[in-house]
Write a structure and sequence with these properties.
102 residues; mainly alpha; two-stranded parallel sheet
Length: 102
């Protein structure tokens, strides 16, 4: 989608986009999540201001909220979202392969 390409610039450059639990309350994150290629989406786990409830601190415990939101937006299973975003993270951070057990 050219609107996202023009606005974010990183799509055609191969950048990754993190999606946080605030996706449940942020239409702009929903737009990004449904517009950029799925193989460029990773999960944001610790952005303090990006929790599902405005004003409440975010936590890695909220990752399942992001996974549920993406599954709904992408019309796929939670397992598919987990697989896609895990593989993306492993490509983005190759050193994780030595500590992540799949």
């Amino acid at each position: 989608s050219s609107g996202i390409n023009a606005e974010y610039g990183g799509v055609t450059d191969g950048h990754y986009f993190s999606v946080a639990p605030s996706i449940v309350r942020d239409p702009s994150q929903q737009l990004v999540a449904t517009s950029v290629p799925r193989d460029r989406v990773v999960l944001e786990s610790d952005g303090p201001g990006l929790g599902p409830v405005k004003g409440q601190r975010n936590s890695p415990l909220n990752l399942s909220i992001t996974v549920d939101a993406l599954a709904k937006l992408w019309d796929c299973s939670r397992e598919d979202v987990a697989d896609i975003t895990t593989q993306n993270a492993l490509r983005l951070f190759p050193k994780l392969k030595s500590v992540v057990k799949l």
